[in-house]
From TrEMBL:
Gene3D superfamilies in the cross-refs: P-loop containing nucleotide triphosphate hydrolases
Pfam (any one): ABC_tran
GO cellular component: plasma membrane
Keywords carried by this UniProt record: ATP-binding, Hydrolase, Nucleotide-binding, Transport
EC number in record: 3.6.3.-
Keyword Membrane: no
Domain ABC transporter: 7-247
MF term (GO), any: ATP binding
Primary gene name: lptB_6
Superkingdom, taxonomy of origin: Bacteria
Stated name of the protein: Lipopolysaccharide export system ATP-binding protein LptB
Length: 262
């Protein structure tokens, strides 16, 4: 018998009035898999992440995380059950240090607290320090988040998510605004996360990042799935080329894939 998927989406729909931002979307994610999600602006990618993480619950359909339905669960409870995320925009408490940001995530994102209290237990401090070390921020942990460069703020979001001890991590455009070298840093980090057993869903427009890491790719358009398969199949799918890649980007991606395979 094959292992149970860690994430199952069944006919997930999110409506805003008459608009279906996500329309009857269904897919599964295997434990330890890296799944890439692409598509043009307005395709429903971030809305899907909002649904999965509980920020904007599905209008209809089901979401199941590691055997437990989370369709109507609150965002904090979903995080405590093992699903964490990062955001397109830098989400942090700007007046606090990088370390204190991660400590807050470790305290409230790992388990439900009946009486939160004002102190930080030792395991919370250790989890935060381990996450900062993993992403390479330990030597800059005292930096105020609002003063940190873009790459460090991206790493901060990943560290904060990692401090919650996630089973699955949703990463929304993790290399947006980064240089080529900084993108390589995040690529290496994602590979190390996979080695730790974390399942990862990626949204990204930078195609070398998406196809270089993903074992499987889903392309959305107008809230619907128009492609699902290995990255190499993107350039062979006429619908994907027409509505998303375009002829020029498709040719460049084909060349990139040839280089990866070679």
């Amino acid at each position: 018998m094959s292992e149970r998927p860690i994430l199952v989406c069944e006919a997930v729909t999110k409506r805003y009035g008459a608009l279906k931002a996500v329309n009857a979307l269904g897919f599964t994610v295997g434990r330890g898999e890296i799944l890439g999600i692409g598509g043009p602006n307005g395709a429903g990618k971030t809305t899907l992440f909002d649904v999965l993480s509980g920020l904007s619950p599905a209008t209809s359909g089901r979401v199941v995380l590691d055997g437990d339905e989370i369709t109507r669960a609150a965002p904090d409870r979903i995080c405590q059950m093992g699903l964490a995320r990062t955001f397109q925009l830098n989400a942090a408490f700007d007046s606090m240090s990088l370390r204190d940001n991660v400590r807050l995530a470790a305290k409230f994102g790992r388990r439900r607290l009946a009486m939160p209290g004002l102190t930080l237990p030792r395991d919370v401090r250790e989890a935060a320090d381990a996450a900062l070390d993993f992403v390479g921020l330990s030597d800059r942990a005292k930096t105020i988040a609002g003063l940190a460069p873009v790459i460090d703020r991206k790493l901060l979001m990943i560290a904060s998510a990692l401090a919650t001890d996630p089973k699955i991590l949703l990463m929304d455009e993790p290399v947006g605004g980064l240089t080529h070298a900084e993108t390589d840093v995040i690529m290496d980090l994602v590979r190390r996360l996979k080695q730790r057993g974390v399942t990862i869903l990626l949204i990204e427009h930078v195609m070398r990042f998406l196809v270089g890491l993903s074992e499987r790719v889903i392309i959305l358009h107008h809230g619907e799935k128009i492609f699902e398969g290995p990255p190499g199949g993107l350039v062979e799918d006429s619908t994907v080329v027409d509505v998303y890649l375009g002829a020029g980007a498709s040719a460049r991606l084909r060349d990139h894939l040839k280089g990866v395979i070679a």
